[in-house]
Design brief:
Length: about 425
């Protein structure tokens, strides 16, 4: 099998950023990315597309332009791993060999977990900003709705961009508010969880908007099935005493966020933890059992907010640590769990939630992070897309230098030795 110094599974935000960071550090490494899609997406802007505030075409670019120069693109899908032989198995049965491996195939949207959803997605008022194809349909529905009931759903965690389900609600409400129809629209967020947002600091400013828009919050309410023709959604609702009931709610429009898991080929692989994610040390991002394997992005087990913002800080850490391993040293770069969720509470204002492991606040700017700001909207809608394509995907690590441990930690006994 063809062999690479670094083989990367997935050419999304994580795979391409890690490749770019590696190239910056050591241009002579042989690096390949296994990626089946010929398109690369800037998904964070889909929330804005659904709110009529961003051009969808700007969220899609040819994969060939996202993969860093000098990195080989293998247009195929990975199907499995033979880590004891340092091999990746492709869907077509081919095999690739590696000295080090980065596993970054993202997260899988489980549309099929909600009965009847697939059949009606994109019709009958059923939409989701989680798809490139459907984000414009959200905006179409929002503009068309003048009265009735609008439902928004949030599945059990973890999902990518945990704030996105409520961002869709705020931007819709903002439009209805501005056009004077909000008072004739009943708005409800059905949340499988028990809190509006996982980091407490950000709940009060969000609650102000929930109240301003008159939205109802239904907690412990999980979407289970949907009948598009009848315009009915079926929820499993857990009461305080633990009893579970099925509740039917009619809708004029519904914005659905599906449950999400690691991809099947990861869940079934030797790399998976009990929950199916690639089982890495949350600081070094190195696999807990296979010392020459790393993971970042949505597929990794690290308990950060699954965001492109997290990837921005993870990529340099993985690049440093991969090079250490290739040089026969132990990883010294440490990731602090940084992730960010720019909460679009109205068109023109964002609450910029930035936090690390344990909900520790990690603001980039010396401003009260709980205040909705115009500057943060500008960051989200104008600056971040440019930073993504021209800085992060190019391996320029502005404000993303990893923390380095001063000394090498003791090598772990189970470290497998590398090929050469
Ligand atoms: P992805 O970027 O999804 O890339 C995964 C890649 O792996 C894909 O190219 C895929 O084709 C490839 N792949 C899949 N299977 C295989 C296989 N078998 N073999 C090889 N390759 C494979 N983040 C923020 O920072 N801020 C936000 O405001 C924000 N908002 C969001 C709003 C929405 C609606 C959505 C959907 C996402 C949002 N995100 C946001 C999250 C962000 O997009 C992801 O966290 C980020 O893209 C994760 O990068 P990744 O590389 O792990 O996954």
């Amino acid at each position: 099998a063809t062999s690479f110094d670094v083989l990367i599974i997935g050419g999304g935000a994580a795979g391409c950023s890690a490749a770019a960071s590696l190239r910056k550090r050591r241009p002579d490494l042989s690096i390949a990315i296994v990626e089946p899609s010929d398109k690369h997406y800037y998904q964070p802007a889909w929330t804005l597309v659904g709110g009529g505030a961003f051009d969808r075409a700007k969220t899609e670019r040819p994969m060939a332009s996202a993969i860093p120069k000098g990195v080989r693109w293998i247009r195929a899908a990975a199907a499995g791993f033979e880590p004891d032989r340092n091999l990746v198995v492709l869907e077509d049965g081919g095999r690739l060999a590696y000295r080090t491996l980065i596993v970054a195939p993202g997260i899988t949207l489980r549309w099929e977990a909600i009965e009847g959803l697939r059949e009606t997605l994109g019709r009958n008022g059923v939409t989701s900003n989680y798809l490139f194809d459907l984000a414009p349909y959200t905006w179409q529905l929002v503009q068309g709705l003048k009265k009735g009931r609008a439902l928004f759903t949030q599945p059990p965690m973890p999902i990518k961009c945990a704030g996105a389900p409520q961002k869709a609600m705020y931007l819709s409400c903002d439009h209805w508010h501005r056009t004077g129809v909000l008072k004739t629209i009943e708005v409800e967020l059905n949340n499988a969880g028990q809190v509006l947002f996982g980091v407490g600091t950000f709940v009060p400013p969000l609650m102000k908007y929930v109240e301003k828009y008159g939205a109802h919050l239904a907690f412990n309410s999980t979407l289970k099935a949907i009948d598009g023709e009848k315009r009915e959604a079926y929820f499993e609702v857990k009461a305080a005493d633990g009893t579970v009931s099925r509740v039917t709610k009619g809708f004029d429009m519904i914005h659905v966020v599906p449950p999400q898991t690691a991809p099947d080929f990861i869940r079934q692989s030797p790399f998976a933890d009990a929950a199916g994610w690639v089982d890495v040390d949350q600081e070094t991002l190195r696999h807990r059992r296979y010392g020459n394997v790393f993971s970042l992005g949505d597929a990794s087990s690290a308990p950060n907010a699954k965001t492109a913002a997290a990837v921005r800080k993870q990529a340099p850490v993985v690049a440093e640590n991969i090079i250490a391993v290739l040089d026969g040293k132990s990883p010294r770069a440490i990731y602090d769990g940084y992730g960010s969720c720019p909460l679009t509470v109205e068109k023109g204002k964002v609450v910029l939630a930035e936090f690390g492991y344990g909900g520790k606040l990690l603001p980039t700017f010396p401003l009260d992070p709980a205040v909705p700001r115009r500057s943060a909207w500008f960051l989200k809608a104008d600056l971040l897309p440019t930073l993504y394509w021209d800085v992060m995907l190019k391996g320029r690590e502005w404000l993303a230098r990893p923390t380095m441990l001063p000394h090498e930690p003791q090598p772990r006994e189970e470290d497998p030795s590398l090929d050469d």
